Structures are given as structure tokens and as C-alpha cells.
């Protein structure tokens, strides 16, 4: 939580600093134009990558696989879009880099390693008798009475 607060406070300061430095080199209007151009290019890239991820997700579902990688990629593309909507060169650069498939694969791998350790698999087995919705007991392998 403290890291998030620090980022919320630090990112605008860094963005203003970088904007001022680039403005000194290119001029204010040129710098503003570059920011707008990068945002438009980023929006197009987010749309393109988002459609590609959506198609892969649909393919995985069609063959009966759990689309874990595609879900993570979808989240990362969404995060890249949010970074690109945030005005500034640093967040735009991070957003564009996150749209690159090899970078997403690396981030996805890190995320899977980190969060797989925290996940537990719970089996859906029950040692006792099975009851249908009416409360009648049935044995395993028998059809439940409607």
C-alpha cells in the first residue's frame, strides 16, 4: 500500500520533470504534439493487441482449454492502455513496452511464478453420502432423481 501511495505521488513529479526537459529541447508545442501522437499510436496498438488477445482467448475456449495466459495478457494490455492514457512520456514508454508480446510474456511468467505459490487447489470431493436437492441420499454412480 505504501508503494502504491509513493508511486501516485512520484509519477506526476517525474512526468513534469521529463516534460520540461523535453520541452527545452524540442519546444513546448512540439513536445505537446509528440505526446498527442504517442497517445494516438498507443491507442491503436492497444486496440490491435487487445483484438489479438481476444481471438486467442476465444480459440482456447473453443478447444476446451482454460485461457490463463490470455487472461493475463488481457489484463496487461488493459494496464498498457491505462498507462498510455496517462499523460506523460514515462507512462507512455512503459505502456508501449508492455504492449510488446515478448515483454508481456516475461511479465506474465513473473506473475505466474509469484501468484502460483499463493494459490491452493481445492478438490471437489466429498467422502460422505451424496444428497440430491430433495435431501434424499443416493450412492455414488447413481443418477440423482429429478
Report the biggest beta sheet as strand number plus sense, adding barrel if it closes. Answer: 2 strands, antiparallel
SSE ordering:
HHHHHEE
Strand content: under 5%
- Distance from N terminus to C terminus (CA atoms, Å) equals 51 Å
Structure description:
The chain has helices at residues 2-26, 28-62, 68-85, 89-99, 101-116; strands at 130-131, 137-138. The protein is an all-alpha fold and 146 residues long. Helix 2 runs antiparallel to helix 3, helix 2 (28-62) packs parallel to helix 4 and helix 3 packs antiparallel against helix 4. The longest helix is centred in the N-terminal third of the chain and has 35 residues, at 28-62. Mean pLDDT is 82; it is low at 142-146.
Short synopsis of the structure:
The protein is mainly α and about 150 residues long. It contains five helices and two strands; from the N terminus they run H-H-H-H-H-E-E.
Keywords:
2 strands, single chain, 3% strand, mainly alpha, two-stranded antiparallel ribbon
Describe the secondary structure blueprint for this structure.
Elements: H1 2-26, H2 28-62, H3 68-85, H4 89-99, H5 101-116, E1 130-131, E2 137-138
Antiparallel strand pairs: 1-2
